């Protein structure tokens, strides 16, 4: 695996030059990079296909499908494999054009037997050159593929093989949004050397030609609202190349079909932006959500702001991906977005859901944590090495008292989370955030919302979902650890699936025993499924600490884009009384 961590400094170049292949790199070095990428694509493809095969095998063994059900599962697995193969082949063909400067048809076939080892390959080129090659490949993949989308598979692949820190998504997004300005920058830079051409006028004319076509079919041109391009459809995706445009690219010091493809991408960028960033825009996201939320009372998507109040939703100039965060309970309305100020980069949103039910749960939890019943139950758990032994020793009266305090609020909020998760899954399937990769992050009942959303996506045809979800970070999830649903989740997520658990979360242990008669809960123990990353979060000593500790847990998982936010006042539970804070943080040393 290449050790590529440092993002190279390309600031001295214009945005357009950043997405062009390096002209000073020899053919042998470019060929070497392509060979590395080809083997890594084969490895990534094989692993992704394996998750689909495991799902079929496990469900057939566990549930004993009849022949009709087995045929359905086989067709779904075939659809998943075909979608993965199609993406990998398409990506390899774009890499071939960029690196080898030859037509796509000459690209080697990425078949099931393709070599996955890079051990005997020549070394990679310098990082700056690799960065430019990757930028060019991604730009072509976005603008020339049949489906105008930034696949979650692409981003997951780049992260897995440590390329992501090298690419410049900001330059790619800005160039897509501002093709005329991008070319103007290059013209101005080369004007002093007498290399200027009138490319801008030709691109502007080509965009005008597209505008006439759009107006003819009743589609308005895009306008920027709330940081997202609005009113542009991806339906007219075929690039229009203005007359004479190709004759005006003499300033590009590279050859081969890559030149024409990049210029075509510039001309067709408006349709690409419409597909990537969605036709609804940030300001109308709420209205779209509300149209699909009749099953729940309260569901909104709100942007997350930084620690000092600055808007960290960078916008389409700087990001090609989305992060959606879901809190698990609320002490105040500010907790909808508050825990997620640890993030920077990407368009970051928080899901506001069922405020009333979550506030009721928070109040009941405060009562529980200061009750004698909870102190006794926690002490019993601490005095035993396994949660299961609690069943034979915990006084029924104590369980009854806890049930009286928590049964209605917990079960009510849990049921709401299940419904909200199904709605969220539907919204994600409808590409409410555009054709961009989505990373999902949640804790407690918020992670249950995400869990249910992923289960919904897993029920849909793989061709509709395989490019959607990049990563899923689930902490303190009140769902069964042994459930076969985790295999489905592993298949539907392109990148990482994180199960953050705490074996000291006694609140979740007792509530789960009351609600599901099981100690095997994902928020308490590892999930025994291949491809699920289990991270023990020992700093979380109680269920109500997930919100305040989420930044530390994300950093432990090496989640991209996390930053340290200085805490003021009580470090664990701002807004809580000292008595409540001391009850929340019960640990083995406290009870001994």
UniProtKB/TrEMBL annotation:
<feature type="region of interest" description="Disordered">
    <location>
        <begin position="563"/>
        <end position="592"/>
    </location>
</feature>
<feature type="compositionally biased region" description="Basic and acidic residues">
    <location>
        <begin position="573"/>
        <end position="582"/>
    </location>
</feature>
<keyword id="KW-0472">Membrane</keyword>
<keyword id="KW-1133">Transmembrane helix</keyword>
<dbReference type="GO" id="GO:0016020">
    <property type="term" value="C:membrane"/>
</dbReference>
<keyword id="KW-0812">Transmembrane</keyword>
<feature type="transmembrane region" description="Helical">
    <location>
        <begin position="219"/>
        <end position="252"/>
    </location>
</feature>
<dbReference type="InterPro" id="IPR029058">
    <property type="entry name" value="AB_hydrolase_fold"/>
</dbReference>
<comment type="similarity">
    <text>Belongs to the TMCO4 family.</text>
</comment>
<feature type="transmembrane region" description="Helical">
    <location>
        <begin position="258"/>
        <end position="282"/>
    </location>
</feature>
<dbReference type="InterPro" id="IPR007941">
    <property type="entry name" value="DUF726"/>
</dbReference>
<dbReference type="Pfam" id="PF05277">
    <property type="entry name" value="DUF726"/>
</dbReference>
<protein>
    <submittedName>
        <fullName>DUF726 domain-containing protein</fullName>
    </submittedName>
</protein>
């Amino acid at each position: 695996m290449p050790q590529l961590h440092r993002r190279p400094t390309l600031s001295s170049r214009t945005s357009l030059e950043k997405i062009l292949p390096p002209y000073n790199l020899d053919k042998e070095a470019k060929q070497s990079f392509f060979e590395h990428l080809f083997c890594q694509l084969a490895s990534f493809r094989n692993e992704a296909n394996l998750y689909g095969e495991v799902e079929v095998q496990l469900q057939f063994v566990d549930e004993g499908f009849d022949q009709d059900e087995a045929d359905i599962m086989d067709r779904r697995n075939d659809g998943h494999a075909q979608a993965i193969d199609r993406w990998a082949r398409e990506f390899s063909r774009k890499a071939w054009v960029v690196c080898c400067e030859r037509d796509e048809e000459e690209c080697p076939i990425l078949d099931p037997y393709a070599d996955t080892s890079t051990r005997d390959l020549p070394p990679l080129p310098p990082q700056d050159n690799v960065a430019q090659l990757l930028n060019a490949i991604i730009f072509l993949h976005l603008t020339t593929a049949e489906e105008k989308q930034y696949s979650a598979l692409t981003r997951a692949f780049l992260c897995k093989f440590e390329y992501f820190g090298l690419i410049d998504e900001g330059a790619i997004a800005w160039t897509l949004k501002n093709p005329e300005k991008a070319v103007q920058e290059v013209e101005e830079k080369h004007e002093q050397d007498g290399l200027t051409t009138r490319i801008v006028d030709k691109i502007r004319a080509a965009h005008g030609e597209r505008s006439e076509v759009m107006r003819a079919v009743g589609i308005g041109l895009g306008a920027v609202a709330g940081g997202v391009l609005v009113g542009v459809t991806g339906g007219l995706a075929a690039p229009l190349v203005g007359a004479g445009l190709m004759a005006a690219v003499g300033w590009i010091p590279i050859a081969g079909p890559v030149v024409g493809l990049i210029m075509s991408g510039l001309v067709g960028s408006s349709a690409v932006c419409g597909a990537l960033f969605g036709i609804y825009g940030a300001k109308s996201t709420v209205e779209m959500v509300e149209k699909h939320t009749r099953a729940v009372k309260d569901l909104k998507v709100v942007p997350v702001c930084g620690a000092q109040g600055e808007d960290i939703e960078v916008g389409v100039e700087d990001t090609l991906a989305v992060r959606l965060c879901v809190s698990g309970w609320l002490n105040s309305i500010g907790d909808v977005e508050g825990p997620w100020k640890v993030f920077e980069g990407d368009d970051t949103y928080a899901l506001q859901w069922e405020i009333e039910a979550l506030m009721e749960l928070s109040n009941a939890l405060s009562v529980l944590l200061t009750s004698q019943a909870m102190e006794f139950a926690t002490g019993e758990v601490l005095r035993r090495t396994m949660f299961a032994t609690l069943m034979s020793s915990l006084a029924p009266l104590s369980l009854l008292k806890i049930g009286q305090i928590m049964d209605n609020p917990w079960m009510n909020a849990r049921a709401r989370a299940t419904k909200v998760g199904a709605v969220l899954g539907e919204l994600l399937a409808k590409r409410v955030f555009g054709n961009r990769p989505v990373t999902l992050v949640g804790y407690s009942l918020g992670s249950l919302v995400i869990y249910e959303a992923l289960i919904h996506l897993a029920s849909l045809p793989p061709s509709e979902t395989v490019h959607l979800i990049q990563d899923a970070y689930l902490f303190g999830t009140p769902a069964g650890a042994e459930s076969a649903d985790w295999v489905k989740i592993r298949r539907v997520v392109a990148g990482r699936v994180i199960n953050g658990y705490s074996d000291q979360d006694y609140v979740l242990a007792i509530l789960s025993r009351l609600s599901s008669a099981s100690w095997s809960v994902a928020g308490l123990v590892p999930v025994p499924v291949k491809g699920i990353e289990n991270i023990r979060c020992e700093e979380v000593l109680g269920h109500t600490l997930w919100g305040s500790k989420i930044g530390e847990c994300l950093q432990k998982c090496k989640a991209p884009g996390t930053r340290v936010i200085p805490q003021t006042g009580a470090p664990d539970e701002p807004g809580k009384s000292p008595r409540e804070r001391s009850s929340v943080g019960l640990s083995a040393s406290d009870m001994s």
